[in-house]
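Design review, sub-item: ligand-bound model
Attendees: FS, YL, KQ
YL presented the inputs for the zinc ion complex:
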Amino acid sequence: MNAFSLQDRDALLRQMGFATYDAYLKSDLWNWVRSNLSQLHMAEKCMKCGVRIGLIWHHRWYSLSVLVGNVTATQDVACAYSDKLADTNPVVRLCCKCHEEIHFDADGKFITDLKRVDARLSGQDLTADWQKEF
Ligand SMILES: [Zn+2]
Ligand SMILES: [Zn+2]
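KQ shared the predicted structure:
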């Protein structure tokens, strides 16, 4: 199951024994997953604007295999990765600025619907009219 909301993400994390996403990000597991991702991803730059500093990992969606860093799944991800948005890639490189831009709407409100965040990532409509399409 792929989780496209933060509520579903948190439910997956609770299944894994993490009380919060923050606890997950501070865990040895995430450190390990992150180091795996760093080894597999060759393009050390923001996939949206191309800068090479201040990079973070953005989860486009969550699943148990993504969260535990399933190596097979992660290798599939690496194969699918390019400078462009790849549909099969759940975790991508972004700079902090682009990350903020896709996660916060024009009113400065944090967007919890990851499908909407994803549309912003792929450069689709960033205007207020956007929601009407869904
Ligand atoms: Zn960027
Ligand atoms: Zn993100």
